[in-house]
Write a structure and sequence with these properties.
The chain is α/β, with parallel strands linked by helices. The chain has 6 helices and 6 strands, in the order E-E-E-H-H-H-E-E-E-H-H-H. It is 52% helix and 17% strand. The chain has a 3-stranded mixed β-sheet. The two termini are 34 Å apart.
């Protein structure tokens, strides 16, 4: 296994799987090569276990057939009808107003809310169960009250969707596959 060592001003040492048979150790400048080698050896079991997981995940990802650009556009058109309806439904329940609604093909976010009240949603939400989509809509609308993830924010989400954690869990477990599907190649 190829292990790259990167030294920087950081205070702690970390180990990260970068690719199949490749890992990165990030260490403070002050650490000696011997200390770094000891750290790697102490974490060899973790490294081997997580490298196997990574390889399996990559094999699964290779099975995912990405949607075409036309298919993603069709999802976006559908999202422009469905998501604003859900926003309009939940906004009065939460007691908030909102600005513009935009649908995007994003790699890492399911939704976002600007300080001006504009809402962005990922086109991939059209591939999730409706209750998961509703969770993302409610989550973003609750940011109109709290622009953070404080206790008050989560209490508001829970007051609207008492089982929101089930939807959040579904998204964490299945979201990566959906993101891979909507990353079409031209």
């Amino acid at each position: 296994m190829n292990i790259t060592i990167i030294k920087s001003k950081r205070k702690t040492i970390s180990l990260q799987i970068k690719d199949v048979d490749e890992a990165v150790v990030r260490a403070p400048y002050r650490m000696s090569r011997k200390e770094i080698d000891e750290f790697i050896e102490d974490h060899r079991e973790w490294l081997d276990k997580n490298m196997k997981k990574y390889v399996e995940q990559r094999k699964e990802e290779e099975k995912i057939v990405p949607l075409t650009e036309a298919e993603v556009r069709a999802l976006a058109d559908e999202a422009l009808k469905v998501i604003p309806e859900r926003v309009a439904y939940f906004a009065p329940i939460i007691g908030v107003s909102y600005g513009r609604i935009t649908i995007r093909n994003q790699k890492s976010r399911w939704g976002s809310c600007s300080s001006k009240g504009n809402l962005n949603f990922n086109v991939g939400l059209m591939l999730v169960p409706p209750e998961v989509r509703d969770y993302v809509v409610v989550h973003e609308l609750c940011h109109r009250l709290e622009m953070n993830h404080s206790k008050r924010f989560w209490e508001k989400v829970e007051s609207v969707l008492p089982n929101y954690k089930v939807q959040e869990k579904w998204l964490k477990e299945n979201g990566n596959e959906i993101v891979k599907k909507i990353r079409f190649t031209k």
